[in-house]
Amino acid sequence: EVSPKCCCFLVLLNTLFIVGVIVYVFTVMSASTDDQPQNANSTGPRATDTLRFVAIITRHGNRVPLLDFPDNQYPLNNSKYWPYGMGQVTPYGRVQMYNLGVKIRSLYNGFLDPLYYTEDFYASSTAIDRTLISGEAFLAGLYPPTDFQVWNKNILWQPIPMYSNSQDKTVEAFFCPKFMQERAKNRLKYEEDYAANLSAIYNYIYEHSGVNLTTPFGMLSAWDTFIAEDTEGYKVPDWANGIYPEPLADLVGKMYIEYVAGDEISTNLIIGLFYEELLGAMGSKVNGTLSPDRKMYYYSGHDTSIVTLQAVLGIPKSTIIGMVKPGSALLLELHQNLTTEEYFVQVLYIDGSSTDLEPASMDIPVCSHPCRFNQLVTLTQNFTHITNYTEACQINNSLSYDLSSTKYVTSYNL
User: Fold this and answer.
1) In DSSP terms, which residues pair with 331 in a beta bridge?
2) Which of 220, 195, 194 is nearest to 205 (CA)?
3) Contacts for 197-200 with beta carbons within 8 Å, 24 or more apart?
4) Measured distance between the N- and C-terminal CA atoms of the chain, rounded to whole angstroms
5) Residue 379, number of CB atoms within 10 A of its CB
6) Which of 29, 38, 305, 348 counts the most CB atoms within 10 A of its CB?
7) DSSP string, 323-374
8) What's the pLDDT tens digit per position in 62-112?
């Protein structure tokens, strides 16, 4: 039999235990609640006092490849591995772009308001499924809804307008006679410079897979299959280890650079109009005439977009990043010196295959460091003079040109 004193003691002990648990839980919840606003309101490392404007150009997330090898463990027509179909952004590609949006938010939070306002931010994309979907995933990571922008508690996402980026001519260039003429010259040069390397790759692929690839674009298709599978977390065929990632990556990277940025004409016909639009927005920011006075422009594009922009900025072919991984980004920041009030530009690059997505600084070798905005305008003026794209595409005042060979390239859409 338990004495009354003992019962009272047990009741008191039990009460103290319950109170202690309640206090502990409340403390933990309070700490968690306190952390949330602090994290949401924390200033990102790129949100400095000098920052005035940011332009972000991304390559779409990982996509389904277009070439199927006979012994492929992950057939392209198998929806178990590629549920969205050829050329479309894969499940992981969508995660890539979402994570990139989250990363950009962490870098520029404080400069960019956590709430979406059209006066602050502008987004556009080329008219291709994979860039549109990638852009939407990016925006979901950049602008998770909070406060009054939570319109459905079951869907932590909010619709943000994304406009057509008609000035990026990545796709249209392959219907441009002048570009195709220049590309043919650049292709011949590339094939001559790397004839032995290309022949070795073609022979290796044929011997191990039975697939007869005899052109640089055939080699590109093989690379595309391997990197798409690898990025998605699938196992690349054992025989491919002899050429993937190297020397295939180096050859494909050089091919990209030569084909789309081998000369000023080609570069201009792909990205000149877009660069002029981008430079115009930055110039308006400098002059105080940008309306709406936005802080950030986002463009969802292609690897070609990023390769050609590097060429415009005067980065030598030897150091251009030709192999732009899915989910990568080129960032152009406009800063203002607080003492001299002079504007300057800083260029950053995010490798989409990196684990931390940390931006790396890219020097503009033809410009001072930091690169003054007015100096950049002068140095890149050769890429801001197209007034009529149709006329710029003409050859000897004629638009007649055999484009029959471009069908494969166009379907590839880089």
Assistant:
1) 56, 348
2) 220
3) 197/247, 197/251, 198/251
4) 85
5) 17
6) 305
7) S--TT-EEEEEEEE-TTT--EEEEEEEE-TTSSS---EEE--TTS-SSEEHH
8) 999 989 999 899 999 999 999 999 999 999 999 999 999 999 999 999 999
**Residue 33, H or E segment:** helix 4-41
pLDDT for residue 388 is more than 70: yes
CA neighbours closer than 13 Å in the CB half-sphere of residue 205:
27
> Which pTM does this prediction carry?
0.87
What six digits make up the tokens of 339? 């003492």
Whether the CB-CB separation of 56 and 108 falls below 8 Å is answered with no
């490849």: which residue's tokens? 65
Q: What is the mean pLDDT of residues 382-402?
A: 82
Long-range contacts of 347-350 (CB under 8 A, 24+ apart): 347/313, 347/371, 349/321, 350/100, 350/103
Question: Is the peptide bond between 370 and the residue preceding it cis, with omega within 30 degrees of 0?
Answer: yes
- Alpha-carbon distance of 263 to 265, in angstroms, equals 6
Q: How far apart are CA 189 and CA 25, in angstroms?
A: 70
Distance CA 303, CA 228 (A): 14
Cβ burial 183-213 (10 Å sphere, 16+ → b, else e) = beebbeebeeebeeebeebbebbeebbebeb
- The backbone torsions φ and ψ at residue 56, rounded to the nearest 5 degrees and listed phi first, read -120, 125
d(CA 149, CA 49): 28
What are the beta bridge partners of residue 336? 343
Which residues lie below 8 Å from residue 142, measured CB to CB, with a gap of 6+?
A: 101, 102, 104, 105, 112, 298
